[in-house]
Amino acid sequence: MEVIFMFIAGFIVFIIFIIAIIKGVTHRIKSPTDELKEEVSNLKKRVNELENEKKS
Fold it and tell me: Where does the sequence pass through the membrane (predicted)?
């Protein structure tokens, strides 16, 4: 009976481990993309500000 519980516990830990790896990989892929989008939007704002200053 204890052996069955150990297999079940091991399986649960294995599933949690797989989910953690998937979340870690998706975070590493998504994080640079979000930072790049934010940087592009900051640069667009700065360009607009400089164009407005040039017109004035």
Answer: 6-25
